[in-house]
Please model this.
Amino acid sequence: MTMAVDTRAKNTRYIVNDEFTQAALFFEDESRLEFEHTPTSRWAKSSTEGSMADEVCRSLQSFRLNAKHLQLFFTDGSNAEFHRDG
Model:
């Protein structure tokens, strides 16, 4: 199973702010992976070590956050997209 498939399967919620500069993915184990992408800051961090969010974070090669989507690129070559509801 690719990291993208595993991430989508265990994701329970995606939220993003109105400016599309901060976002979070929530997982079945109640962990979350937070993202920030501004002109001066770009990071991703997990809420808890050893969690699904931590596993996803450690597997990230890069990410893209914009009005269209959050796209995660993994070291195994797979990628996953998340879209704001509505």
Remarks:
- Residues 3-81 form one domain.
